[in-house]
Amino acid sequence: xxxxxxxxxxxxxxxxxxxxxxxxxxxxxxxxxxxxxxxxxxxxxxxxxxxxxxxxxxxxxxxxxxxxxxxxxxxxxxxxxxxxxxxxxxxxxxxxxxxxxxxxxxxxxxxxxxxxxxxxxxxxxxxxxxxxxxxxxxxxxxxxxxxxxxxxxxxxxxxxxxxxxxxxxxxxxxxxxxxxxxxxxxxxxxxxxxxxxxxxxxxxxxxxxxxxxxxxxxxxxxxxxxxxxxxxxxxxxxxxxxxxxxxxxxxxxxxxxxxxxxxxxxx
Length: 267
Known about the structure:
By secondary structure, the chain is mostly helical. The chain has helices spanning 3-6, 35-67, 70-106, 113-137, 145-171, 182-197, 201-206, 210-213, 232-241, 247-250; strands at residues 9-10, 13-14.
């Protein structure tokens, strides 16, 4: 498989939205990123999870709607809705916590405002995606794969561009490296955010597992195989405690709960 193909396939299936390659944050297996570039690479991992998630939804929704059982449809909507929650929370945390702190640390008011403005561009489309799934879940509408793909097509190209633009913005923070050790700060901030999230029972069972089944440890030669940075024993405990609650949802993901690619059932 060519390097370019790896960014546009998901478990061997062609997908519409390309992943962000390690070259964007400047990370290489033989020359690992440092400082702001390392922070950007770690954010790139999260953004690729988001892209893999919507790709998995996109390529399976028509077949789930036309060939799936009622239970398949219920589980699929659960998976898609969890992705919606994940991206909503991701952007909310950036706007209220991460970006303002970056502005303060760099000493440049409004430094990250362009990224917040990009959030506003796809906000309505993402809200429509979530509202539609909620109606399907409530039995107010039937699952229509073509309709869901249409909704995704309206907002996802802009969202995908934003996810890459943001990585570039973070790389450019290297010019303020005299004011902050960006890598150390981001690791600390990430730990705080994860710790806060894990105190929420819904987050633990509906969103947290996506960090595993939307991450591919084999991607780009395994350059980001160490994500998430959690000791293996702790990971096993979390998997046992929380990841099995909605196990039927995660079968639609492109990877299993050990972050290894697997065949998606309706792709």
